[in-house]
Amino acid sequence: MAVAFDSMTKAIAMCQETIKTSSDVRSEIRVAMSETPEVFDHARALADKARIVYNDPLIDPTDKPAHIRTDFFALAMELRPLIGEMHTADNNMRAMAPRELNDLRWAICVVTLCGLGASAGVSMWAARILFRNFVLRLDTIQHNAQRVAMGKELLPTPPGVDEIADLDVAFRNAAEIIADARKREFAILEQSFDVLFSLDKSYRVIAVGDSAVKSWFYKPDEIIGRSLITLMHDDDAPFAVQTLELAARSEKEQQFEGKIKCGDGSTKDTRLSVAWQNSAKSFYCVAHDVSERREVERRKQQLIATASGELASPLDAVSQTIAELSSEHAAELSEKLSKMMRRAESNLDRLTRLIGDLLDMERMQSDKIELNLSRVSARRVCETASEAVNALAQRMGVPIEMADGVDIDMLADKPRLEQIMVNLISNAIKFSPKGKAVNLSVQSLDEFVEVSVADSGPGIEAAECDLIFEKFYQAKAEAASNEVKSTGLGLTICKVLVEAHGGAIGVESEVGRGSRFWIRIPRFDARQEESK
């Protein structure tokens, strides 16, 4: 029984503590408890009295409830208003709970929104600082790239330990390598006699290398701002303008040669290479002095012309003497001597043709080829050339056949074109077997007319097809197939003349089956003639 009274005492104390804690939070409970502040003291006193009564052996057990009944009813009456106040407080709290909960929710939302706003603001501030540093460093690297291109000193980059810092280190290492290479290139260019310079779109010099002092005897500031046209010889200025315009239109490198008027009053033969840079809107030019080469060429041409002229007259006299001996005194000559005379006549004829070809080459190289272009029949040119070599064809036993087809007009210089065809047909006759025909054909190829000469000779190896148009070159198979020797200049002359017409020349050949030489000459356009 004692345990029961102890539990009751603890329960009263716990209830008092709970209500006290609640009253600190809820004002309604604190108001209710203010009406009967001693209720818990009275309850503890009643519990102590009940313990004493129930433990007293002198009191009859049936009378023990009567001893505490009065105190119990007094406590009950004291609790009645407290219970009413507590009930009222509970009802008030129930009524107030939704509004307080809603206020609490709004408070939580406001705090949350304020926290999010503060977090966003801090994040944006941090991102702005980070982004500003990021952009600043990238912008510095971009400006440094431009400064590398201009050869200027690099700007310092803001410090960092991320990938951008690694990129900056790699870029600066590359810039050092480029700077070292540029120093070596400038050291080489300073020793070069080639003049490097650039022009604006009006052909005025905007930059020039120091080599202009050594080569042209001008200081850089004496050239900058001047037009290239004023530096060129008057005869070369129009062609220089045409070449510069072509370079700007095609955006490809172009070359031309002309004379530069130097600062000491002299002129220098110069080969200029020009290229238009569209991004910079300027021309980049390299001028190479070819005066020595031109002088060597002039002396060589003069030597050839002099030697050829000096040789032509005595060779003609010797050839005429041999011809007279062979015709007028043939009966008096032995067979051996007659054979020697024929061989000498053949060699003299070859030397005469060589001198003629050399003179032609000298004239073509020393002067610009002037063509008298007109409307020319392709078939008529072939017929005229065939008649010119008919005697050779009969002597070699090689017929000339013209393929059937329509006639086509070309825009060409008739005598020059006949010279080309005579050379090609005579070559085909010389290297064709006896009885095998040389075939001529004409066909249209868009804006060009193709005239071809085909033979059944020994043919040309594929590796030699481009070489046979070089001076003094002769294909091995053709050289070994016939006793007739070539000067090695005929095809070179043909190439020069064809290209002067704006055409092309080539060969298709197979060893053992013959060769087909072709030329392509611009087609005559009657509409262009009418418009002129």
Describe this structure in words.
By secondary structure, the protein is α+β, with helices and mostly antiparallel strands. The chain has helices spanning 2-25, 27-35, 39-55, 64-150, 163-191, 211-216, 220-223, 228-231, 237-250, 291-328, 335-366, 378-388, 390-396, 414-430, 476-479, 490-500, 526-531; strands at 195-199, 205-208, 254-261, 267-277, 282-289, 374-377, 400-402, 409-412, 438-445, 448-454, 504-510, 514-522. The protein has a 5-stranded antiparallel sheet with strand order 2-1-5-4-3, sandwiched between helices. A 5-stranded mixed sheet has the order 7-9-10-12-11. A hairpin with a 5-residue loop joins strand 1 and strand 2 (205-208). Helix 12 (378-388) crosses helix 14. It is rod-shaped and about 200 Å long. The mean pLDDT is 76.
Summarize this structure briefly.
By secondary structure, this protein is of the alpha+beta class. It has helices spanning 2-25, 27-35, 39-55, 64-150, 163-191, 211-216, 220-223, 228-231, 237-250, 291-328, 335-366, 378-388, 390-396, 414-430, 476-479, 490-500, 526-531, and strands at 195-199, 205-208, 254-261, 267-277, 282-289, 374-377, 400-402, 409-412, 438-445, 448-454, 504-510, 514-522.
User: In which order are the strands of the major sheet placed?
Assistant: 2-1-5-4-3
Task: Tell the overall outline.
Answer: rod-shaped
Overall radius of gyration: 58 Å
Structural class category: alpha+beta
What is the helix content? 55-70%
Average pLDDT level: 76
Which H/E pattern describes the elements?
Answer: HHHHHEEHHHHEEEHHEHHEEHEEHHEEH
- The total strand number stands at 12
Approximate strand percentage? 5-15%
Q: Tell me about the biggest sheet? A: 5 strands, antiparallel
Q: Enumerate how many helices there are, as a single number.
A: 17
Quaternary: single chain
Low-confidence stretches: none
Q: How far apart are the first and last residues' alpha carbons, in Å?
A: 143 Å
